[in-house]
Each structure stands twice: as structure tokens, then as C-alpha cells.
Specification:
The protein is of the alpha+beta class and about 650 residues long. About 40% of the residues lie in helices and about 15% in strands. A hairpin with a 3-residue loop joins strand 2 and strand 3. It starts with a strand and ends with a helix.
Length: about 650
């Protein structure tokens, strides 16, 4: 008998249907030589300290650091888990072969391996590895099963991550709670959550300490077009007024007109982080909500596996793209076919294939998130919003580049008339000005987003979700106007202005900008290629970043004000009390993440990673124990929480 184990009952039942295992035993399906069962997420976990020795049950500084000689696993303490595991254990003990059908990723590999280990499975194990849940993908996956050993590096990376999080999280949490916390109110410290909190606290401190300073901008209106002085801002009013007086009443002269044509390629396909960023920016969805919606679309078979960190497709996907387009052509929502005209615009010729979309070297376990080609049915409004983003990004990838021209017009106002002799030394130079404009020549892929924009806007308004955040630099509208025709040498009257402005602090993090900062280890990077290069040193995995942010909310270390992420007094104090840079540095945590990726690619030794962490946690414990101060972190109950409590009374 071949036993298949999936990660969820719904997935298990889908696989059973394809395999012909139609006899329902409630905790597993059977038939056609197969028994298909399932977990529901993590059935097993690493043992807790008290499982190794009773001495580690009570929290005391004398027991730190807690470093087990050998890590073990245990079943979660839940009756439903125990009941399901009993079925799995019975089936696996009698199996001739096991097929691991867990989610095709690091976490999915770890979940199922631990269950098989706990069940004492001895028979050969194969691995089902698929990127979508369509019937075709499942059938194809079962025809290409691989030996479990091929995924051993993936398992070792997941195991190293889990052990690393245990070593740092449990030791550091107990250490800081006992040393700096209050009785019964632990301080949570973690390998990824603490550097993430530090990002928010540091940004907030920049904002709090920011002192606005005035500056003056010199501009002028010529032929209904605003030109801005190229000298930049003036830091004193006197300096600005002096420049203003030099140009007032003098003719404005066009000195140069430059026109350049350029192409804008379609935006990259979505990985999980970019999808979460876009959903937060456009709909106000949290990172966790977007992940859950993307997972639901995957399980409904309409999009591919969501927990990915690549924005590319492998070459073998290209032949399937026309079929996917055909599915989008047939897709309807409320009787309308939103993609039919867009897909029709690609008909009649082969879909273009570029390295910006198809690149085997940029794809490891999974490709970017794309539609499967199965027309969606019965989606919620939120699921439809996410599907629409994925579908349009996919369609746009095959459209031509957008062609546009950028016009730069330079002008100047002459200074004082040139004098003779000594007077010439006092002559003022001309003051230069610039205006830029952008004109779309051929919209190319932009047509994919121009269509039905008004409908999308109406949907967002109906849901009362903001489409932009005034805090996010990604959301500023910098669309440039088309300029009138200017000729070099022309001149005329103009109206100069001197405007006083104030410097502004950096924006608060939103979930969108925080996800980007986590992805690039705290570095703000707009360039897509550079950001992709920094991904290897990002903190956390795409699939775990949402949970990290939710943990910070749950621990009341951060709160949300509109779309802003604001550190609470407790969160600020916690970061202040942590002096060990290792615990709160994004760059150092990013280095750990790079090592975990290298373990997955067999470039780094898992044992070395764990030994380094053991040494690091030992040093951290020593440093904290040596602190003779009486510092304490005040656990401040949030006002909103207090108000809710009063309302209930």
C-alpha cells in the first residue's frame, strides 16, 4: 500500500480524488492501492526545555544558556493532533511506500519529515513537488516523483532554522524577561522579530527627533510652465530673496531643449513580498491577510504556489502560457470578462519570451506567482482583488514595452549687466532653471492597467479601504506633464516666485515599506535589480514575514495608526534595553538568513551554523548577566485595549 500524506485535509482529498482513493475513513481516504491522509499544519514541534530536564522548567538565570546536547521533537499537546497522528502512525507502520505531499517549500518539508520521524516510518519515501493544485499539475507531479533524499538539503535548512530560532528565542526571551521584565509579563525576543522591531523603533526615533528647518525654492512661470531653479533649495531667506531680485523684471531665455525617447519594461511578476506590498498599498490589506488570500487562491487551483521569493518563470512554463491566457480570456466576474480584450490584444502572434520573465537561473524550488488558467469561481471580493493583481501582472508581462519621450527644457535669466574693469568682478552669473515633461508615445503594457481602473476604484471605495498612504514614498504620484513646444533662443516675460517650505521627517513604516525593508535587510532600495540582489540577505523568509509582523502586534510592541506602524512604549523600551547588536541588527540577521539559504543549496554546513549560534547565545547571556544596572522594561497596556475592557464592563 502507498501512503500519501498532505498538509491539509482539503489538499489530501483533492489528491485522493485524482488517485482514485474514494473510500472515506474520515481521517484518511483509501482506494486504488493508495491511502491518503493529512496533517493540519504542524503536528510536531521541537521539544520544550522541560522535556530535556525538569531543571529547565522554571525560569532562572542560573539555567542559562539552555543548550540541549541533541534536539528532539514532540507531538503538540492537542487531542485532535493526537487522534490524527494515531491514524498517520498506523498507516505509515504498514506502508510499502510513502509519498510526501506536503507544501513544496522549506516549511512543508519540515512539517512532514517530523511527522514521519515521529511515526517511525521505515519504508522508502518519495516526494511530490508541484507549484499549483490543478488536476493536471497533480497528475504530472505523480508521474515525476523524486526520492526524498533529493530534498535533504531543504530539510536541513528548515531544521537549522527551527533549531536556531529555538536557541535564540527561548534563551533570549527568558534572559531578558528575568533580567529586565516584570513578573508574569515575559519579554519576547526573537531572531527575526527583534531586528524588525528595531527598524520601526529607529525610524520612529528619527521622526521624533526630527527638527523641521525652513528652506526656500526659487521658481518662475514662463508660458504657463513652471521652471525650477537648478541651484536647488536656498537655506536662508536672504539668499533666496537676493536671487529673486536678480531675475525679477529681466527676460527669461530658453537655452536648451532636449528630447529623449525611452522604453519602460513591464513590471516583474509577483513574488510573495511584492504581492503583499501591492495589496497593502492598494487595498490596505495586512501582510498576513494577503498571504492567506494567496493561499486560498492556490488551494482553489486558480493561482500557483504563493510562498515564493522569485519573480521569474522557468523555461518549461513558456509552452503552457497560451493555455493560461485562454483561461483568463474565459474568466468572468459578475457577468463581465475583464481580461478578454487584453488577451485578445496578444492574439495572432507568439507570446514574447524575454529574460526579464523567463530565466532558469533565477528559479530554484518555485517560480513567480501566476494564474493557472483555470477560470475562478465563487471568489470573495478580497480574493478577487488579489487574483486581479496577479492576472494583470501576468498579462502585462507579454505586452510590449511602454514607449515614452522625456523632454528637458533649460532656461536662464541673466544676472547684472557686464561692467568694465573692477565692476566686472561684481557681475552676477545667470540663474538657470529647468522643466521636465513626459509624453507617452505608445502605452504598451500600460493598457492592461488603464482598462477598468474606474471600476477598481469604485470597488475600493465600497470597501472603505485606502488606495494610497500619505506615508509611503512608493505611493507619491510623480506623473510628469507634457510640455508645450519650446525653441532654443526664445525669450519673454516670466513671473518668478520664492516659496518657503519646511524639511520633512522620514515617513513612518507601513506594512508595505516594512516588508521591503525586511526584504533588503533595512536598506531602502527602489531599483528592482539591486533589490533582487539584496534578497539573499533579507531578514525572515517571504512566508514568515507576515507572521513576524503579527507577533509584534500581538505582543503589543507595535500598533497601527491608519496605515502607519507605530512602536509602543514597551517596544521602544525593549529595543533600548537590548545592547547586544547581534540581536537587533538587520544586517547581522540577514547574514544568518544567507547562511540558511546556503545550507539549502549545499554551500554551508548546518552543524557549523548551529555551533555558531550556540556560541553567540552563550556570549549574549554572559554580556547580559554582567549588567549591574537595575533597568526594567515597563509593560504598558495599550489605551485601545483599556477602552475595550471598559466598554465590555
Amino acid at each position: 500500500m502507498i501512503v500519501c500524506i498532505a498538509e491539509k485535509p482539503s489538499v489530501g482529498r483533492d489528491i485522493a480524488r485524482i488517485l482514485g482513493a474514494t473510500q472515506d475513513h474520515k481521517t484518511y481516504m483509501e482506494g486504488n492501492g493508495y491511502q491518503v491522509t493529512w496533517t493540519f499544519g504542524h503536528l510536531c514541534e521541537l521539544k520544550m526545555p522541560e522535556d530535556y530536564t525538569p531543571m529547565w522548567k522554571s525560569w532562572s538565570l542560573s539555567s542559562l544558556p539552555m543548550i540541549p546536547p541533541r534536539f528532539g521533537i514532540r507531538l503538540k499537546d492537542d487531542q485532535g493532533v493526537r487522534n490524527q497522528f494515531a491514524t498517520i502512525e498506523k498507516l505509515m507502520q504498514a506502508a510499502d511506500e510513502i509519498v510526501n505531499c506536503g507544501d513544496a517549500g522549506q516549511e512543508g518539508e519540515l512539517i512532514q519529515r517530523w511527522v514521519m520521524q515521529k511515526a517511525g516510518a521505515k519504508c522508502p519515501v518519495k516526494r511530490l513537488w508541484i507549484s499549483s493544485m490543478t488536476d493536471e499539475a497533480i497528475r504530472e507531479g505523480f508521474q515525476k516523483l523524486k526520492d526524498q533524499q533529493a530534498y535533504q538539503p531543504l530539510y536541513l535548512a528548515g531544521l537549522s532554522r527551527a533549531i536556531g530560532d529555538w536557541l535564540l528565542g527561548i534563551n533570549a526571551t527568558r534572559l531578558y524577561s528575568i533580567k529586565y521584565g516584570q513578573p508574569g509579563k515575559p519579554l519576547s525576543v526573537g531572531r527575526v522579530q527583534t531586528p524588525t522591531l528595531a527598524l520601526i523603533v529607529n525610524r520612529q526615533r528619527e521622526i521624533d527627533n526630527f527638527k523641521p528647518e525652513p528652506y526656500w525654492v526659487l521658481a518662475t512661470i514662463y508660458r504657463d510652465t513652471q521652471f525650477t531653479a537648478t541651484a536647488g533649495k536656498y537655506t536662508s531667506k536672504e539668499e533666496g530673496e537676493k536671487a529673486f531680485s536678480l531675475i525679477e523684471g529681466k527676460p527669461f531665455v530658453i537655452t536648451d531643449v532636449q528630447k529623449k525617447n525611452a522604453n519602460e519594461a513591464p513590471k516583474p511578476l509577483f513574488d510573495l513580498t511584492s504581492l503583499q506590498v501591492e495589496c497593502n498599498r492598494k487595498f490596505g490589506y495586512s501582510a498576513e491577510m494577503t498571504l492567506n488570500l494567496a493561499q486560498a487562491l492556490y488551494e482553489k487551483k486558480v493561482t500557483t504556489y504563493p510562498r515564493v521569493d522569485t519573480q521569474f518563470l522557468s523555461d518549461d512554463i513558456y509552452p503552457k502560457c497560451p493555455q493560461t491566457m485562454n483561461g483568463l480570456y474565459k474568466t468572468t466576474f459578475a457577468g463581465k470578462a475583464p481580461y478578454a480584450e487584453l488577451v485578445k490584444g496578444l492574439a495572432g502572434k507568439a507570446l514574447k519570451k524575454t529574460k526579464k520573465v523567463f530565466d532558469n537561473s533565477k528559479v530554484t524550488d518555485h517560480h513567480a506567482i501566476i494564474p493557472t488558467g483555470i477560470p475562478p469561481r465563487a471568489l470573495t471580493d478580497a480574493e478577487q482583488h488579489v487574483f486581479d493583481l496577479i492576472a494583470r501582472r501576468f498579462i502585462a508581462a507579454f505586452y510590449p514595452d511602454c514607449k515614452y519621450s522625456t523632454t528637458t527644457v533649460l532656461g536662464e535669466v541673466a544676472g547684472e549687466e557686464k561692467g568694465q574693469g573692477e565692476d566686472a568682478k561684481n557681475n552676477e552669473k545667470a540663474i538657470s532653471f529647468k522643466a521636465t515633461g513626459k509624453e507617452i508615445l505608445e502605452p504598451g503594457w500600460h493598457v492592461v492597467y488603464n482598462q477598468d481602473n474606474q471600476n477598481n476604484q469604485n470597488n475600493q471605495n465600497n470597501q472603505n479601504t485606502p488606495t494610497t498612504s500619505d506615508d509611503s514614498p512608493e505611493n507619491t504620484d510623480e506623473g510628469e506633464k507634457t510640455l508645450p513646444t519650446f525653441v532654443k533662443g526664445e525669450s519673454g516675460d516670466h513671473k518668478p516666485t520664492l516659496t518657503e517650505k519646511m524639511t520633512t521627517p522620514p515617513p513612518y513604516y507601513t506594512e508595505a515599506t516594512l516588508l521591503r525593508a525586511m526584504e533588503t535587510a533595512g536598506k531602502f532600495v527602489e531599483d528592482e535589480e539591486l533589490r533582487a540582489a539584496l534578497k539573499e540577505n533579507g531578514i525572515g523568509r517571504p512566508s514568515t514575514r507576515a507572521a513576524i509582523i503579527e507577533t509584534l502586534f500581538r505582543r503589543h510592541y507595535i500598533r497601527k495608526e491608519r496605515k502607519r506602524l507605530v512602536a509602543t512604549p514597551t517596544g521602544i523600551e525593549l529595543i533600548d534595553v537590548i545592547k547586544e547588536e547581534l540581536l537587533k541588527s538587520c544586517e547581522l540577521t540577514g547574514i544568518w538568513e544567507k547562511k540558511l539559504r546556503d545550507i539549502e543549496h549545499q554551500k554551508y554546513d548546518p552543524a557549523q551554523f548551529i555551533n555558531e549560534l550556540k556560541q553567540q547565545i552563550t556570549e549574549i547571556v554572559s554580556q547580559v548577566l554582567a549588567d549591574n544596572s537595575s533597568r526594567r522594561v515597563a509593560i504598558v497596556e495599550e489605551e485601545s485595549k483599556k477602552k475595550k475592557g471598559k466598554e465590555k464592563k
